[in-house]
Amino acid sequence: MAFQLPLQLRLPKPGASFDNYCCQNNPLAYPLLQQLLKAELSPACAYLWGEHGVGKTHLLQAACDSCSRMGQTPVYLPLEQADMLSPDVLDELDQLDLVCLDNVDQVAGDSDWEFALFKLFNQLHDQAVPLLLSASKPVHQAAWQAADLSSRFNSGQHLAIKALPSEAFASVLEKHATAKGLQLKDKVSQFLIQRSQGQLEQLLQDLETLDYAALADKRRLSLNFVKKTLEQT
Question: Of 19, 44, 224, 225, which sees the most CB atoms within 10 A?
Fold first, then answer.
């Protein structure tokens, strides 16, 4: 019988891929994840850490996208939503081809989650299933209670993800707009970048809002339309 993914384990947003990832400041991220996906790491675990908004979620979802394109079944679980989940959601994930746990340090210090993560790590290791983790800080700085779990996470490859410089925002915006079939005039792009105030997450959130608004209103993204739409958010 085929393993059925619970609804909360499916990708929350489509569109993240390695094609629209800007690697400036993080040239090692793509090669590392390619090694993980090609089963060239032992143990098959990669741990990405960095501040909020630096692109960790994009990388995890891009890895899922890449895995799906190869005809495999990945899973993505945002652990910042752990309060709405139960640790047993991790059961049987070793039957899949890639497990991505975003913001894993959000459950540090919770004994039930730590036990479930320890069990999952061992199961994935036994089945040679890649595990991709993200966190806001290095393993040794998180509040893990279980030394065995911290040791397991430490055994994988670690990479600090750095914030994208603001001068690269235009390239990121163009890639994401193109993927959505949107054409942005220079003055619209400049407005969106200025509005983001150096926060990439805000920039992409605004683009998502405009994508839905343009589809609903069947309008082109003129500067006036963009300003009016975003004023309402």
Answer: 44
**The whole model's pTM is what?**
0.85
- Smallest CA-to-CA distance from 166 within 140, 196, 125, 137 is with 196
Residue 1 belongs to some domain of the structure: no
119 shares a domain with 49: yes
pLDDT top residue among 178 and 14 = 178
Q: Are residues 115 and 179 in the same domain?
A: no
Q: Report pLDDT for 7.
A: 47
